[in-house]
Structure formats: structure tokens, C-alpha cells
Amino acid sequence: MELNNIIEFKSSAALREKLEEYGFTKTFAEGDIILNTNAYIKAIPIVVKGNIRVMRTDEDGREIMLYYINSGESCIMSFLGGMHHDTSKIKAIAEEETEILFIPIDKVSLLIHEFPEWLDYIFRLYHKRFEELLEMVNAIAFKKLDERLLSYLKKKCEMTNTHTLYVTHEQLANELGTARVVVSRLLKQMEDEGMVMLGRNKVKLVERQ
Length: 209
Fold this sequence. Notes:
3-stranded antiparallel beta sheet, elongated, 4-stranded antiparallel beta sheet, alpha+beta
């Protein structure tokens, strides 16, 4: 595993060796739950390949998408929960086949004290996630749902490098924190306006000239 091409910072050879020594890898299929709400966090993930969708679930089982974790990134929520011996406040799901390097929590503390670039990596991830969460709050507070839906479809297509998403209206509704019938109505309007093409469990973004 060539960690220099994975980690989102210029890591020293010594740090890369420690990550390989301490960590273990695991591969998840699309849709696999990597971390569930209220589970104890024993290791933090670094995505080697693929993407992770991070969701927040309330007591009634309703969900909303918070952010994605891409290749080279880790989950700051897992880091904070693990360091404080707390349970997970989020659910992490593999968006596609995903390979993850897991670093045990006790080793994370050792890395923080030994490698300044590791701590810098954690802080930069924290900053990025904070900005993403602010963007989400702003969208919920100030944007109409049709704008949020279109923006979400574009982001999802960009992340998977495709114009066609194989996703149900129910899944989109869960990730946007709304009802399926609302998403179905908005998608139909978008189709009538030539913005998308709909199929069975499929949404295709139409490129504008």
C-alpha cells in the first residue's frame, strides 16, 4: 500500500511506516454499514479507495446526509468520539466498494504526540468538515428543497464521475431529510424542465449546452 498517494498531507516516511505497522485494512461492498449509531469506536478510518456517506439518525429513525468521506480522508466524528471513549453519533455507509485503513484509537494518541504532520492532518479535516456542515445548515435554512436536490445530485454525480445515479426516491428523501413523495414530485418537475431523465431507480442528469 503506497500511503503517500492516499493520505492528504505530505507525510514523512516514518509516519507512513507507523500507519502501516499500526493499521489494518478492510474492504466494504456498496451499501455496507461501516459504523452504526451508538456503536463504540475502536479505530478511526482512513479511506484508501472509494467513498463513505455519513448520516445522522434521529430517535424516530429519520436520517439526513451530513457529508462524504473521500479517498485520502478520515472521519473527524469517529476521531473525536474515539478519543473521548464515546459512542458514535453518526452512521457511515460505503457509497461504493470501499477499502479502509483502520488505525486503533490507542495508536492514534501515540501518533499525535510523535508526528506533528498527523495532528495537522486531523485539524485540516476538522476545518473541512466544519465548513461542509455550515454549508449544509445554510442550505437547509435558506435554500429551497428543489435547489438542494439538484445540488445534491450534481455533487453525487461529480463524486462518482458519472451522469447517471442508481438510487431510489426513498434514498434521496432520506439523505435530504424529507418525504419520498416530495422528492418524487420535484424530480418529475425537473424532468419536465429537461434537467433530468428518470428511470426505474435511476436518475440521469442532463448536460446543459
